[in-house]
Amino acid sequence: KQSSFVCSHLRGRVYLRIASRDRFAMSPPVGTLHYIEQTSYKAEKALIAAKFNGIALDQKKFDAQKDARKPDFIAKNPTSKVPYLETDMGCIFTSNAIARYIARCRADTALYGKCFDDEGQIDTWLEFCTHELEVPLMTWVYPVMGLMEDIPKASADAQADV
Q: How much is the pLDDT for 13?
């Protein structure tokens, strides 16, 4: 099937529109998603958004021990936050920002809503999940995975919060 890819700019955002008979035709990769294997769930937000939006992303595991000190990494991503999405236009970091960017890449799918109010509702639930679920779940699950020290009171509080 033939597809045409049009990149348009609106309010500083880049939208990739695909004109095709196949609504879910994959686009060329919009960038490379760098992630740390131990916290890959953070990258999965972007990968899920990409899957639902028909957008391809290259993926690359990030080794914090050796990659974080490389001058090219620091130049591209001065905050040193991982995951980050490297695009032709620069880097986007934090899992929610990347997922939002990917969701907005195709306005025709309305993954990020059809209007400003929809975007607000989506932002509300993303922030709720981050602060009310992810933080307690990390406090509860990371010790089990050996990713952080187990503090029994913190784990019990996290279990109660979820």
A: 40
